[in-house]
Amino acid sequence: MKKILYVGAEAMPFAATGGLGDVMGSLPAALAATGEADVRVVMPLYAAVSESWRRQMKQEDVFTVNLAWRQQYCGVYSLQKDGVTYYFIDNEYYFKRPALYGFFDDGERYAYFCMAVMELMKRLDYYPDVLHAHDWQAALTVVYLNCLYRSLPGFADVRTVFTIHNIEYQGCYDFSILGDVFSLGENEHSLMEHDGCINLMKAAIECADRVSTVSPRYAEEIRSAEYAHGLEYCLERHANKLCGILNGIDYTYYDPENDPAIFAGFTPTRMAGKAKDKLAMQKEVGLPERKDVPLLSIISRLASHKGLDIVSECIWSLVAENDVQLIILGKGEERYEQLFLTLQAAYPDKVRALITYDRDLSKRIYAATDIFLMPSKSEPCGLSQMIASRYGAIPVVRETGGLYDSIKPYWQDGDKICGNGFTFANYSAAELKERTEAAIALWNTPTLRKKFVKQIMQTDFSWGVSAQKYLEMYAGIE
Ligand code: GLC
User: Fold this and answer.
1) What pTM does this model have?
2) What is the pLDDT of residues 48-73, one digit of tens each?
3) Is the CB of 25 under 6 A from ligand 1?
4) Please, are residues 385 and 421 in contact by the beta-carbon 8 Å criterion?
5) Cis amide linkage into residue 13, ω under 30° from 0
6) 82, 142, 259, 350: which has the fewest C-beta neighbours closer than 10 Å?
């Protein structure tokens, strides 16, 4: 049985801000469920990890981590969940803060975290077959293994995978802190260097035995300048070790039949609950309680790469010209928050802008939604289109990254309906509007809608297939 150690900055349900947390919270359990891997996960013990989780933890060890001249306390706690061992790195100075990220010393915080992970392996005498690091916050484990730990007993045969969840965030720092914070020296200068700065993601790509990303399409896209945020040369050079494996979603947590967060349950063949969920949501946010109007939604971080600039170009006319309702859930860039609040003020009977983020509320909205808009400019994988599909909403997406791999365009072949959503190729407001109106027209044709929505809900976005692909990748590393 292969021993796999996952390293990452967040994991559901302990502490998470985005898709990385969903994946770290569900892929390890899916791998463990195959019976073919012993999976452990290590993450920081943030202030956000609740008391009830802490009560279930056991202290494994306490030691000191040396990071350059610093000597920092490190506590290791563990708990078992869904067949997976979770380790938590405890250091209140670094992790007892009001948020997970966004501090001036994030570079130092995650350098400490990565060094602590290396020491954890040594102290617990646990050497995995594969160290699997996720995103820039975990990148230094791969670097430390190769540059600092390789010759120590136990580390010689540890293989490495580095997964890119979003290439936009690379971990870039000034070279003045190479020794002082990252504990590396001049020998590592060229390995760490990109564009005159330290680049943690680039260094991990160089060092890892395999590099993966979260969809096959994104694995191709990041070899080009349009998507790679400067790292295309590096990925092109390492193309032979690069692959893309589509994420899945947790089918137990996202289960419209048994979801305690939603008003009424439903399945592909028993859809009455979904109509109730819609009425309940309309009531909750004070929109007219109408079954016959399609409810559109956007649930997203309000950032431009999520496609919000093309949304802002067409949303006014889309709402003005169609009998629709629209709910937006998310926060982010001020200009988009303002846009949606202004739209709501202009169309109080049609639009609700909920400038916040709340997981249970998001599930109630997915359950109520008829048409889900996700026109991302780039999207490594995207999970929302999968969640929306499972909750019976018709996705309208741009053909990029994981959206391209997961949503196939609607078309009719005689009596047969093909595809599982509406898609468009160019990053254009006109195309987004046109495809959204096509989805509205289909929704307004009840016989077609019934068949199509059922087909969408039955698309398999569970982890089964992808977990197998991860196992194959691990097995393939010499
Ligand atoms: C990042 C990506 C998103 C992906 C998620 C999980 O949040 O932006 O597309 O689904 O990671 O891999």
Assistant:
1) 0.95
2) 999 999 999 999 999 999 999 999 99
3) no
4) yes
5) yes
6) 82
